[in-house]
Structure formats: structure tokens, C-alpha cells
Amino acid sequence: MISLVVKRALAAIATLAFATFSIATCASAQDYPKRPVTMIVPFAAGGTSDVIARAVAEQMGIALGQTIVIENVAGAGGSTALARASRAEPDGYTIAIGNAGTNAATYTIYPKLPFTPESFVPIAMVAKTFGIIALRKDFPARDLKEFIAYAKANPGKINLGHAGVGSSNYLICKSFVSAAGIDATLVGYRGAAPALTDAVGSQIDGVCDAAASVSQAINEKLVKGLVVGSTVRLATLPELPTSAEAGLPEFEAQGWNGLFAPKGTPPAVIAKLNAAARTAVETDAVKKRFADLSTVAPDDNEHTPELLQQLVTRDVEKYRKMLADDAKQ
Fold it and tell me: What average pLDDT score do residues 287-299 get?
């Protein structure tokens, strides 16, 4: 039997070890970051998440006094990247940008993932996005009414590209075809950019995309915008009708992008990253870039990690119901 003296000695050692760990963690957080931070983007370069990430990362790096390096890890609708992020050391030097697809819908579509919502700590929402349906420039339909009529007359023959099953663009596609009541083939890519490239080249009929990555192509008439799933028209695409104006108010496609860190990342580090993200989206550089992309920065009360966690929790349940038939065993 362990004597009282030994028990007290062991307790003292444990207390000292915990105190030492706490002091070291605190000091480490105060010094953070000492080297460049990696921001994992779950899709190929050029897509919505990538464009937003690069704009925010540059200004966050300035705020933190260190470079934030973008690492594009495409595949499985963002799950490949999130798996990598979940395995990273929880020290603040690896973070990821995600959305309702990668951080909510994916758990229904891929139920055997090596990570869960609890594998990540929310940092901050950094952008609000708007979904658009755009068609190849030579598609015969001139507006949404004609498109739906054409699709119903040709069930299964129209193909719409997206950034991979589970991505936010995939959710735009699912919401659109459901609201329109049409049978269309949804074609997955390793990111929004290659899908848009094929639409520009008329290899597919159209894309489900966010304004951030498709607005320029629409304005340059490389593809033609059909509808935006928003309640108001976008300043960068003033002629593109909202879903209600086009006669399909059921189509809603307003999304979010947020930053996440691996579970176990110290709260003090999360606080520093949150502050840097808040500073970044309030800079003139990011505001201008977002305006050019028809993307909106969070409101003053939408920057907190708690708000981002609420969005994840809400959307996990939302897409569990919407995508039950897509679950892969």
C-alpha cells in the first residue's frame, strides 16, 4: 500500500508537471507564430475557397507578422484535405478553410470519414457567398424558364459540373435541381476551376458555382449566367436575376467560408488567429477583393468561433436530411 507521504509526493509532482505544462503552453501562445502558418484549401487553385483563402491569408499574415502559405489539397469533395488537417499538430501552424460542404454535408455523404465535427476547433467565419447557375455560352435556353422546360424535355441529358460530391458547389447543384424539379447529371471535379474550364469549353452544359469564382467568366461572356440563389441582385452581376425574379424562389444558395484548426489547438492561439481573421476581412484590400467577387464579409457579430460552431451544427443536421440518399456505405 502506498504511504501517505508517497501519495503527497506524487500529487506534488503531478501538480508541478501540470503547472510547467501550463506555463510552457502560455509562453508558446504568447510567442505564436514563430514561423509561417499553412492554410489548407480543400480544392484546386482558382475556385471559390481558394480565391477567398488567398485574399484572407495575405492580410492575416500581415496581422500575425508571419506568412500564411496556401496548400491546395483537392479530392473527395474536400475530405482529403480535412483528413490531413485533422491529423496535423494542434499548434496553430496548420489551419484549414472550409464551408458547409466540407465541414457539414460531408459527414452524411461519407459516413466513414477518419474525422468528425469534433476533430476541429472553429476559428472564425471569413466570408458569405452566393450560389450561381451558369451555362455554356451556346446553350439553347435564354432564361431559367426555358432551361427548366428544356431539361424536362431531355431528362438526364443535361450535365452540371461542381467541385466534387460534398463541396458547397455540389450543394448548390442539389438545391437547384430539387427546386427546379429536373433530372440532371451532376459531374464532380477536383475543384470549381476545372469545372468552369469545361463549361467555358462547352464540354459540359453548365456549372453550379459561387459568385466568387464564376462572376468574371459571366462578365466576359465566357459562360452565361442563369440565376443567383440570393434575395438581392449582386453588384458585380446586375443583370443576373435572383431566384425569386426568375420564378424559382425555392432555390436558395447562400453559403459561408470559415477557418478551422485541429482539435487541441490552444485557446490562446485560436484567439490570435480569430483576431487576425477579423482584422483581415476588415481591411480595404479584402473588402475590395470581396466586392469584386460578389462575396460579403461577416457582420460585426459574426466573427466569433461560437457563431461558426453554430453554423456547422446547424448545417450537419440540415444536410443529413437533404442528402440521406447520397450517403456512401
Answer: 92
Cell, residue 201: 469549353
Confidence band for 324, pLDDT divided at 50, 70 and 90: confident
Pairwise CA distance, residues 313 & 142, whole Å: 39
H-helix or E-strand containing 88? none
Written as nine digits, the cell of 90 is 494542434
Q: Which residues of 158-187 are buried (b: 16+ CB within 10 A; e: fewer)?
A: bbbbbbbbbbbbbbbbbbbbebbebebebb
Q: How far is CA 128 from CA 101, 137, 311, in A?
A: 14, 27, 12
Backbone angles phi, psi at 200, to 5 degrees: -60, -40
Residue 156 in 3-state DSSP?
A: coil
Distance CA 199, CA 61 (A): 35
How much is the CA Rg of the chain, to the nearest whole Å?
22
At 28, which amino acid appears? S
Q: Does the pTM exceed 0.85?
A: no
Residue 48, pLDDT score: 87
Confidence of residue 4 (pLDDT cuts 50, 70, 90): low
Comparing C-alpha atoms, which of 49, 109, 96, 108 is closest to residue 69? 96
110, HSE (Cβ side, Cα atoms, 13 Å): 22
Characterize 28-41 residue by residue with b for buried, 16 or more Cβ atoms within 10 angstroms of its Cβ, and e for exposed: ebeebbeeebbbbb
Place of cell 438581392: 232
SS3 at position 128: strand
